[in-house]
């Protein structure tokens, strides 16, 4: 019996010490990923490190397992000596900086990333983590700088694109804007409509707020409307849209309007929304809206619906939008197609409540671009085939020009 035990131990010892460091690393990965057995993976890695103490990949994976098992000081003890040696391996800096970021040591994580980027200035993973940390510290301009560097190298980086779009309104404290909307009807009205919007946006610690004045001409008459919109942040995941408007020219604008939406930044680069819009002419028009958006590389897809309850039926509209981003958050080509009318469109402020129950089809293109860092321009054209009376249809052509200056 003693001979059998001795033979077994000798065989086991020969097998263990006969394995290469790469074999032991592969074994540790199986133990960690497939079996979720972190203690055994740690033992295996320590055996491998005894065989190959200068094999950095072993130390990186050991530090990661300590991180995942909440053994923070043990992970730091693994990473610190290699940081002091100033190794040039990208994966090492990503693992070490992630440890500190996940444990609320953002400044230390940024210090680690700075050294890592000196050796790997084009690393997408390091740049994206740097941007995430700056964003968590509300240092939006620095986050934007990291993301612009990232996207200049890889415009199809989905998560970087999503984050840049989310923080774009927070990187400048102020913005002034002007829009001009021209509407032509081939049958419904003899006169063209003209709408001019003047806006001021202010970024605050709780979100952005916009003050807008709309001037409109319809049937040779003029009207004015005042609006306030806000985008307060509730958390890293949720934020709100809130809007109110007032006008005393009910023939041109609704007397007042309100709207609220709750937005959620969801996993896998999805965004969801649910809310309502209300317009008051002589009576109230209530609409309920929901949308879902998805970033994929340098594309953004969005599907939105508006539901308008009536006395005997439910009117509904749908709009699909695709954007192709060419550079930053404000540089894109857009395509839109749908049915029905959106109360968020500037032109819709001039419509009568019964129009929302008519059948409308639309298709449009828009182009946003920047000149310099602070000048944003856009042009949008939309074609509507609209039922303006029962069984009577007409064509409508919209052209919108816009400009924003941030400062």
From TrEMBL:
<dbReference type="Pfam" id="PF14559">
    <property type="entry name" value="TPR_19"/>
</dbReference>
<protein>
    <submittedName>
        <fullName>Tetratricopeptide TPR_1 repeat-containing protein</fullName>
    </submittedName>
</protein>
<dbReference type="InterPro" id="IPR051012">
    <property type="entry name" value="CellSynth/LPSAsmb/PSIAsmb"/>
</dbReference>
<keyword id="KW-0677">Repeat</keyword>
<dbReference type="InterPro" id="IPR019734">
    <property type="entry name" value="TPR_rpt"/>
</dbReference>
<keyword id="KW-0732">Signal</keyword>
<dbReference type="InterPro" id="IPR030887">
    <property type="entry name" value="Beta-barrel_YaiO"/>
</dbReference>
<keyword id="KW-0802">TPR repeat</keyword>
<feature type="domain" description="YaiO beta-barrel">
    <location>
        <begin position="173"/>
        <end position="345"/>
    </location>
</feature>
<dbReference type="Pfam" id="PF19413">
    <property type="entry name" value="YaiO"/>
</dbReference>
<feature type="signal peptide">
    <location>
        <begin position="1"/>
        <end position="18"/>
    </location>
</feature>
<feature type="repeat" description="TPR">
    <location>
        <begin position="124"/>
        <end position="157"/>
    </location>
</feature>
<dbReference type="InterPro" id="IPR011990">
    <property type="entry name" value="TPR-like_helical_dom_sf"/>
</dbReference>
């Amino acid at each position: 019996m003693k001979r059998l035990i001795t033979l077994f131990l000798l065989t086991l010892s020969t097998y263990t010490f006969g394995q290469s460091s790469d074999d032991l690393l592969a074994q540790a990965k199986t133990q960690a990923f497939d079996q979720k057995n972190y203690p055994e993976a740690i033992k295996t890695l320590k055996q491998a490190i005894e065989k190959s103490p200068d094999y950095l990949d072993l130390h990186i994976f050991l530090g990661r397992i300590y991180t995942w098992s909440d053994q923070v000081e043990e992970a730091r003890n693994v990473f610190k000596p290699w940081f002091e040696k100033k190794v040039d391996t990208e994966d090492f800096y990503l693992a070490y900086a992630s440890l500190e970021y996940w444990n609320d040591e953002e400044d230390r994580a940024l210090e680690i990333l700075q050294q890592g980027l000196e050796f790997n200035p084009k690393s997408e993973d390091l740049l994206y983590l740097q941007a995430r940390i700056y964003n968590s510290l509300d240092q939006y301009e620095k986050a934007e700088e990291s993301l612009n560097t990232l996207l200049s190298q890889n415009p199809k980086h989905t998560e970087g694109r999503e984050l840049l779009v989310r923080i774009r309104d927070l990187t400048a404290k102020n913005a002034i804007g002007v829009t001009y909307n021209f509407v032509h009807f081939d049958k419904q009205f003899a006169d063209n409509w003209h709408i001019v919007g003047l806006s001021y946006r202010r970024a605050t610690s709780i979100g952005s707020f916009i003050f807008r004045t709309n001037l409109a001409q319809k049937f040779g008459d003029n009207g004015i409307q005042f609006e306030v919109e806000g985008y307060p942040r509730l958390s890293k995941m949720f934020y709100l849209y809130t809007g109110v408007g007032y006008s005393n020219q009910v023939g041109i604008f609704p007397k007042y309007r309100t709207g609220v939406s709750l937005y959620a930044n969801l996993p896998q680069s999805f965004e969801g929304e649910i809310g309502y819009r209300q317009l008051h002419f002589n009576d109230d028009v209530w609409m309920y809206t929901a949308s879902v958006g998805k970033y994929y590389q340098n594309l953004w897809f969005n599907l939105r619906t508006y539901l308008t309850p009536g006395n005997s039926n439910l009117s509904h509209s749908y709009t699909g939008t695709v954007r192709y981003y060419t550079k930053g958050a404000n540089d894109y080509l857009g395509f839109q197609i749908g049915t029905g009318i959106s109360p968020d469109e500037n032109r819709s402020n001039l419509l009568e409540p019964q129009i929302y129950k008519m059948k409308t089809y639309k298709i449009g293109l828009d182009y946003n671009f920047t000149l310099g860092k602070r000048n944003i321009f856009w042009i949008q054209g939309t074609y509507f085939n609209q039922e303006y009376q029962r069984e009577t249809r007409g064509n409508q052509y919209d052209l919108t020009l816009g400009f924003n200056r941030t400062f």
